[in-house]
Amino acid sequence: MEPVSSPLTTHVLDTASGLPAQGLCLRLSRLEDHGQQWTELRKSYTDPDGRCPGLLPPGQMKAGTYKLSFDTEGYWKKRGQESFYPYVEVVFTITDETHKFHVPLLLSPWSYTTYRGS
């Protein structure tokens, strides 16, 4: 029997090296209390492929505003690299919890980009 995959995934690529960003700390939060407070749902690290499996267990997603916070400063410091952005926060809204969502991050010491993947 195959494991059920998370309805929310991320993938971080280090565009400076052309490799997955392994060991990058990230946090997933959801906006609660009528938009007044972030509640942390998970803290994790990217795997050797730059992914974070099991980010949100099946059945735990609900409509709302979410935030992925990536500790980019810690990632670059471990590599002896100066960087411009100490962290990256990607805030997004989920309106249909039956869909799957993929939020990739392309990262360099001086820039980043993200998009809704598939």
TrEMBL record:
Pfam families: Transthyretin. Its EC number is 3.5.2.17. It catalyses: 5-hydroxyisourate + H2O = 5-hydroxy-2-oxo-4-ureido-2,5-dihydro-1H-imidazole-5-carboxylate + H(+). Pathway: Purine metabolism; urate degradation; (S)-allantoin from urate: step 2/3. Residues 3-117 form the Transthyretin/hydroxyisourate hydrolase domain. It comes from the Eukaryota. InterPro entries: Hydroxyisourate_hydrolase, Transthyretin/HIU_hydrolase, Transthyretin/HIU_hydrolase_d, Transthyretin/HIU_hydrolase_sf, Transthyretin_CS. Homotetramer. Catalyzes the hydrolysis of 5-hydroxyisourate (HIU) to 2-oxo-4-hydroxy-4-carboxy-5-ureidoimidazoline (OHCU). Belongs to the transthyretin family. 5-hydroxyisourate hydrolase subfamily. This is 5-hydroxyisourate hydrolase.
